[in-house]
Write a structure and sequence with these properties.
Layout (H helix, E strand, L loop, with lengths): L1 H9 L2 H23 L2 H11 L12 H14 L6 H14 L4 E8 L7 E7 L2 E4 L8 E9 L2
Antiparallel strand pairs: 1-2, 1-4, 2-3
Helix pairs in contact: 2-3, 2-4, 2-5, 3-5, 4-5
Length: about 140
């Protein structure tokens, strides 16, 4: 625990802000998706992105990726691809960074598997998996910075 606090204190102010925002958003996404569903969660986060402190700063896709993955891996509980993608999309939108939030299903296996991911600058930023070829894109939300 002390090592994590020491690591947190060593971060820059901007990194601390992004990480704290990612923590709040990823936990909120888990709750909103459970009680309200995807459509309402997206609408809520779209509004929230306009008021985040990082909206006044210019972040980078890599900093957002780091914040989302760090928050999701250091908090208790399980945060899946949808929680991470919704959180990342909100932070990217608040930072005026263009990206595409994609939702797809696995068409090559006998079991149902859905996946959510974010692409930025033509590369997968959040939600990378081994074989994207197995996913058929159902819907995508392109956000222009």
């Amino acid at each position: 625990m002390r090592a994590r606090l020491r690591d947190f204190r060593a971060l820059s102010w901007a990194q601390k802000l992004f990480l704290c925002e990612a923590v709040v958003l990823i936990v909120t996404s888990k709750v909103l998706l459970t009680v309200a569903g995807l459509e309402d969660a997206e609408r809520c986060f779209g509004t929230v992105s306009q008021f985040l402190p990082c909206h006044r700063q210019s972040g980078s896709p890599e900093v957002v990726r780091w914040a989302v993955l760090t928050a999701g891996s250091h908090l208790p509980g399980t945060y899946d691809c949808l929680d991470r993608a919704l959180t990342g999309s909100t932070l990217l939108e608040a930072s005026d960074l263009p990206h595409c939030l994609r939702f797809g299903v696995d068409t090559q296996s006998n079991t149902f598997e859905a996946h959510a991911w974010i692409e930025s600058n033509g590369e997968v930023l959040i939600g990378d998996v081994d074989n994207f070829g197995r996913f058929q894109i159902l819907t995508e939300h392109e956000v222009r910075g």
